[in-house]
Amino acid sequence: MAKGSSLVGSCHSIPEHELPSSGKRMPLLGFGSAASPLVPETVKMAALEALKLGYRHFDTAAKYGSEEPLGEAIAEALSIGLIQSRDELFMTTKLWCGDAHGDLVVPALKRSLEKLKLEYIDLFLIHWPVSAKRGTYEFPIKEEDFLPMDFNGVWAAMEDCQRLGLAKEIGVSNFSCKKLRDILAIAKIPPAVNQVELNPFWQQNKLREFCQENGIFLSAYSPLGAIGAFWGSNRVLESEVLKEIAKAKGKTVAQIALRWIYEQGVSIIVKSFNGERMKENLEIFDWSLNVEELKKMSQIPQSRGVPGKHYTSKYGPFKTVEDIWDGEM
Ligand SMILES: NC(=O)c1ccc[n+]([C@@H]2O[C@H](COP(=O)([O-])OP(=O)(O)OC[C@H]3O[C@@H](n4cnc5c(N)ncnc54)[C@H](OP(=O)(O)O)[C@@H]3O)[C@@H](O)[C@H]2O)c1
């Protein structure tokens, strides 16, 4: 379990981790809301179901199109008494590349807050370490629209978001050790979190060590390999190693993958819009993997499942996927 994490303090039995600036406690299992195609009503209904089951941490992004339905779900949850106060929630959203320009950051967060119907966000992340032409929002980003990010200007504006009380904590996503070092060198407020792909097939050993040494908390996206998504594969849920462990323990493959991530001291963002699977994903906190099982999982061949090809361009700062990750492949 990570330093600062604990099983106490949560009435929903999801352990939490206390973040440094605000002392806000981040539930270590959160509801992911990226889907393609995204149906707003489905997100709203799924979020309400998640709230009923005990989820309190919701992950969204300006780019996902899920801020509005999440905002509606929260408003409804408050009105029907499912939650008593917005403060019971831990909400994360992300800055899109077209707004990753110093003067556009605060207005972008204000727009996200308006969609979410919130006065503050718990965690605001830079979505990818690259900018796009000012105010452009299409995805994939046009090759000619990529620009290097002005880390000084953008990070200073992220810090403004925190100083203004619009964000309790600020952080990054898809940052390599090298890029984290660059941010740490200029930051007055260091990033609290780096949200990255992390699962048994991309264990991120180097990044985990770096983040632990530098007090940056890691959050795992695509914990199940994003099966069914255009950016994902079935390699986690169809893994023979995981299937064997799951069978022996009477657990599902998904639970083995999620439990393994939790045992690495990392928070998990998992997407399911299905009530049964949402419940299944919550049932990972009262048992553990043994030494032999952990050893088998540590031997799984490693590679990125989300290399970020969409963020490379002959005109932009990243010509190849190796450039995005500074060779940390
Ligand atoms: N920062 C970034 O750049 C970034 C990138 C990717 C994702 N994210 C965030 O992380 C979240 C999670 O990652 P992800 O959506 O990429 O992938 P994921 O959570 O690894 O996988 C989601 C897929 O797994 C299925 N699933 C969920 N629980 C399951 C279970 N117990 N058994 C079998 N299948 C199950 C879901 O289907 P059902 O819905 O049908 O259950 C869905 O198809 C996203 O939603 C998003 O919030 C962030």
Share of helix, binned: 25-40%
Query: Which class of secondary structure composition applies to the elements?
Result: alpha/beta
In the predicted model, the low-confidence regions spanning at least 5 consecutive residues are 6-11
> Count of DSSP E strands?
13
CATH fold annotation = TIM Barrel
Count, helices: 11
Residue fraction in strands: 15-25%
Average pLDDT for all residues:
94
Largest β sheet strand count, sense and barrel closure: 8 strands, parallel, barrel
Q: Count the domains.
A: 1
Judging from the principal axes of the Cα atoms, what is the shape?
Answer: globular
In the CATH scheme, the class would be Alpha Beta
**Secondary-structure element string:** EEEEHEHEHEEEHEHEHEHHEHHH
CATH architecture: Alpha-Beta Barrel
- Biggest sheet, spatial arrangement of strands: 4-5-6-7-10-11-12-13
Describe the structure using short key phrases:
329 residues; alpha/beta; TIM Barrel; eight-stranded parallel barrel; three-stranded antiparallel sheet; 11 helices; binds NADP nicotinamide-adenine-dinucleotide phosphate; oxidoreductase; Aldo/keto reductase
